[in-house]
Design a protein that fits this description.
The chain has helices at about 1-15, 20-40, 50-70, 75-90. It has about 100 residues and is mainly α. Helix 2 packs antiparallel against helix 3.
């Protein structure tokens, strides 16, 4: 959810017009959530290879970290550290 919020926040701050701001603020999180639901969610009906599963996670979480960093916000480092720690613990606990 933090990744979706970061993408939406970046979209709102990046757009030049109200329509562009709204489109980016809604569209980027929607696209990321759709990708996650299709390829990274444990409850997904799609059976994808582990590489696709992990790649989707990296794409969504990595893009959120990048846009937070681009906005020169200290949350980028905190977000990245939590995402990496979470991924490592999920692997250790076989989740």
């Amino acid at each position: 959810l933090a990744a979706l919020a970061g993408l939406g926040w970046w979209g709102w701050n990046t757009g030049n017009t109200q329509i562009m701001k709204l489109s980016l603020a809604a569209g980027l999180p929607l696209a990321a959530a759709t990708l996650w639901a299709m390829f990274a969610s444990p409850g997904s009906s799609n059976q994808v290879p582990n590489l696709v599963h992990v790649g989707t996670q990296i794409l969504v979480l990595g893009s959120a970290a990048i846009v937070l960093y681009q906005m020169r916000h200290s949350l980028a480092l905190s977000f990245s550290a939590v995402a990496i720690a979470n991924a490592a613990l999920m692997r250790v606990w076989h989740q």
